[in-house]
Design goal:
With 174 residues, the chain is mainly α. The chain has helices spanning 7-26, 33-54, 60-77, 86-93, 97-116, 119-130, 135-142, 146-173. The chain has eight helices and no strands.
Length: 174
């Protein structure tokens, strides 16, 4: 059994992880700062409750990220009326309500799938696709070769594709 944390332990872990956790969550909230803050706060509340009983896990950031990803996944399963991206706006302005629904569903599928990926894969995909960082820049920052980053990107995309496909198959079955 892991050692139960002291108040100083909790403060240290919080300081060491809060920026990474908030970044992880906020990238999945598509600019919704309030949601990102709520998910981050709820994650920490759950950590405090669980760690007082079970002790602090060996990799606390991984534990926090897993809980946050599950909270996000649950949140995005619910219909959200304000999920308009560029495609949805175009469809809406042309009166294509079905196009709006398709755009929302695609966005929701992507968010749910990203939330289920390992943290390292999600960060890599976000750095490359959302932050538009070059492979060379990512490689230098992570101390990897460009070839290693390209391989990891390929595997992350494949896993993301499988997660999306699994969601689609679940939707068809349900």
């Amino acid at each position: 059994m892991a050692r139960l944390p002291t108040e100083d332990d909790i403060r240290r872990i919080y300081r060491d992880t809060i920026d990474d956790l908030y970044g992880f969550v906020s990238r999945r909230c598509d600019g919704d700062r309030e949601l990102a803050e709520d998910i981050t706060q709820e994650t920490w509340l759950r950590a405090l409750r669980a760690w007082q009983v079970d002790g602090v896990p060996e990799r606390s950031i991984a534990w926090l990220a897993t809980v946050a990803a599950r909270l996000l996944s649950n949140h995005f399963r619910r219909p959200v009326t304000e999920l308009f991206d560029d495609e949805a706006h175009s469809a809406l302005s042309s009166g294509d309500i079905e196009g709006v629904d398709r755009a929302r569903e695609r966005r929701s599928l992507l968010r749910r799938a990203l939330a289920r990926l390992p943290l390292a894969q999600t960060r890599l995909l976000e750095a490359f696709h959302y932050d538009e960082r070059a492979v060379a820049e990512i490689a230098a920052a992570d101390g990897l070769s460009e070839r290693a980053v390209e391989g990891r990107l390929r595997r992350a995309r494949q896993k993301l594709r499988r997660e999306i496909q699994a969601d689609l198959e679940t939707d068809e079955d349900g």
